[in-house]
């Protein structure tokens, strides 16, 4: 097992918006110093990104190699599939409150507790599937707070495609966007078969028309962590190249 050059802490933040404690994994980079201000990357599905996606290990290695600049990584956890759906899905009963939590509670807490640059241009979100959707939605609502995105196979309903197309502010957001070339027929946990590929191609066409820092990648594979794990490297490199 790889040994991290940086370190991971387990923290808790109470959300008034959600009326609950939120567990947050925190990765501090190898040369973390209280004298330096760092950019920030916030991951939806934090436990999965740390354990299945190996996000902290990948970032740690790329930082140690000098491939990317150092940043502080935060992984937001949820309490299971029902809780995830209530927060991430557009029709979820905690959806709006979760978005407010991200912008109005989590980011200020991060800036109080850690040495950060405290600029929207230095704050990024990463998410897969519904986590990609909620990250994109947050940037649409709060582009001055979240101006960098890594979207891995994001859920892209017509409603969010329309919002992106009509947005005058999304052009200020730097985006790495990827999707698997086998994601035209993915069976979601409910058993329903979903086509993620075609909506993401539509999203690509919309974003490619805007004047912005944007990279689109179709990887060989499906809607699986084994694919997203490898795809993290080009995403981090695009946003944090040293």
From TrEMBL:
Protein name: Enterochelin esterase
SUPFAM superfamilies in the cross-refs: alpha/beta-Hydrolases
Top-level taxon: Bacteria
InterPro entries: AB_hydrolase_fold, Esterase-like, Mycobacterial_A85_antigen
């Amino acid at each position: 097992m790889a040994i991290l050059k940086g370190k991971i802490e387990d923290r808790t933040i109470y959300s008034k918006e959600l009326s609950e404690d939120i567990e947050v994994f925190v990765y501090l980079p190898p040369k973390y110093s209280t004298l330096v201000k760092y950019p920030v990357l916030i991951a939806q599905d934090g436990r999965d990104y740390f354990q299945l996606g190996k996000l902290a290990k990948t970032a740690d290695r790329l930082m140690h190699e000098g491939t990317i600049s150092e940043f502080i990584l935060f992984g937001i956890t949820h309490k299971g599939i029902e809780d995830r759906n209530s927060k991430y899905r557009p029709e979820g009963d905690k959806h709006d409150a979760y978005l407010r939590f991200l912008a109005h509670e989590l980011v200020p807490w991060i800036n109080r507790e850690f040495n950060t640059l405290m600029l929207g241009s230095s704050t990024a979100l990463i998410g897969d599937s519904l986590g990609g959707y909620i990250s994109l939605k947050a940037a649409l609502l709060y582009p001055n707070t979240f101006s960098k995105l890594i979207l891995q196979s994001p859920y892209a309903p017509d409603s969010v495609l329309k919002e992106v197309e009509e947005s005058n502010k999304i052009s200020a957001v730097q985006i790495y966007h990827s999707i698997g070339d086998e994601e035209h027929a993915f069976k979601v946990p409910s058993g329903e078969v979903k086509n993620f590929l075609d909506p993401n191609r539509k999203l690509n066409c919309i974003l490619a028309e805007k004047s912005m820092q944007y990279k689109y990648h179709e990887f060989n594979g499906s809607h699986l962590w084994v694919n997203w794990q490898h795809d993290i490297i080009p995403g981090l490199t695009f946003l944090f190249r040293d």
